[in-house]
Amino acid sequence: EKGGYDHFMLKEIYEQPRAIQDSYRGRLLADQGLIKMAGVDDNLEKFMNANRIIIVACGTSWHAGLVAEYIFEDLARIPVEVEYASEFRYRNPVITDKDVVIAISQSGETADTLAAIKLAKEKGAFVFGVCNVVGSTISRETDAGAYTHAGPEIGVASTKAFTTQITVLTLIALKLAKEKGVFSQSKYHEFLTELENIPSKVEKALLSNDLIEKVAAVYKDATNCLYLGRGYNFPVALEGALKLKEISYIHAEGYPAAEMKHGPIALIDEQMPVFVIATKRGHYEKVVSNIQEIKSRKGKIIAIVTEGDETVKELADHVIEVPETFESLTPLLTTIPLQLLSYHIALMRGCNVDQPRNLAKSVTVE
Ligand code: M6R
Q: Does ligand 1 lie within 6 Å of residue 61's CB atom?
């Protein structure tokens, strides 16, 4: 049932090219220059008239929500707030019938996310679900939605659910960008075509597995790690850190790279591995100067870079390449090596990769 893989997590990491494709199949019609999503098409007015979009989720799904915030604001120019469902539900939040709430949940059973949805509905908001499990409670409780179609995710550490959530949310943002006239037909077409290239680029990113295993062997005994990224890749840094914590039990923190000098920089010494997402475009030069700051404090730098990068290679202890793509689509690629790194490190530490201690696949109690 693990399809020849040692663990579900590894199988699910490798399923991503296919899962991403499944998440846009029948929706992304690049040749016709069209995105068809029934849940959005049927409620287009709600989305177009929304004052803002509020995204509610937990854990990895919350990280996908953060990526979506960058995408919706950057591409579709719609204001977005991303909320931990657990905080939102108890905060007496301001919600009106002009708000669109998007709830993201792999399982569709997360108690806090469900409660946040109920609250938003009571206040008159239109609630849209992005779930993986078909027929789940959240998919039934929402007014409309789009499934991620990632297939069953068994490993407790979420992998393909994350990349397919981002894909589905990107489709929605692109659709709204086009609808709002923020995007020209040609720009729209370029994006649709590039999105179709993503599965093969993920495939290529997966080819670094052997290199990543070697890097994992170097850092497997670390007690603390930092993950840094900027812009679209800041949420990827958070996700990389969460993945490492939950399956390897190594303490890890994700930060926006520029925040480092507001505190975490004090932690850096020769014992500290720092994973930096430093892909081309997207504040590249600024990330490079952050890398220099780490280097001058003797931190160990493992950088995720764009194929062919020479600058960071000079500075970093290890570089792992991902193919080039549009800045807004980079999270779909930069996430891959970080998933593999956590997997290998956890395995080398003898941890139960698929069922980490203290954790359940779906958190149905608050
Ligand atoms: O099923 P959900 O997407 O609602 O689950 C949310 C979180 O519990 C989940 O993403 C959790 O953080 C994962 N174990 C992370 O890998």
A: yes
